[in-house]
Amino acid sequence: MVNLARSRPSRLECDEECAVLERNRRLANALHIQNADVSNRVGPPCYSEFLKDEARKNPSFMLSVHQTLTQLVQTARQSKQKFRSHCFPSMNREQRRAVHELAEFFGCDTQSYDQEPFRNVVVTAYKDRCRIPSGSVVAVVQREAAPTPQRKGPAPLPQSRKRIDTVASSSMPLPLNSSQGHSASIAQPEVAPTTTTFDYFNFTS
Fold first, then answer.
1. Residue 21: domain span
2. What is the rounded distance in angstroms from the CA atom of residue 140 to the CA atom of residue 53?
3. Per its record, what are the GO molecular function terms (predicted)?
4. How far apart are CA 135 and CA 152, in angstroms?
5. Shortest CA distance to 95 belongs to which of 45, 137, 58?
6. How many structural domains are present in the chain?
7. Each residue of 150-189: pLDDT tens digit?
8. What is the CATH number of the domain that holds 115?
């Protein structure tokens, strides 16, 4: 039988991700940053395929929910109370599911009330753990649907530029042969000397 009174309490080892969270938490406390997102995530959140499909089918609705949750989180952070709540209007099942899943990215709690067809969702944002994601699901869907820009090659040179380059390369002096040294010069064509012949017997006075 193990004596629990004498056994030392086990302590879970902190892995690399835990160390990053703890470092970010200490830095936020030192800088007096409240409700800081101490996670090591970069870029927009990884939204589910369901949320992406809803954003493609009804982007105005998803953008409205995102803006409402953003305003709720901002109000909760500035409030003196521990939490603030927002009651969404009656929705169908797919829309309520979208509100439930999207509220998780804001660190909020959700609860459905009433019966069909008046069933609605109430979202609660707690001051100490609510947050605002770095990007909306509508923006993520639009970014994924945008075509990837292709890199274009260099533009071809105009014909006049090619002709100038060709003339310039042909008019350049030829390099001197290394065996001739610096005193070598270009040979000039020989010209035969002209002589004048006088006929002394064909002299007229």
1. 14-43
2. 11
3. DNA-binding transcription factor activity, RNA polymerase II-specific; RNA polymerase II transcription regulatory region sequence-specific DNA binding
4. 30
5. 58
6. 2
7. 666 666 666 655 555 555 555 555 555 544 444 445 555 5
8. 3.30.1370.50
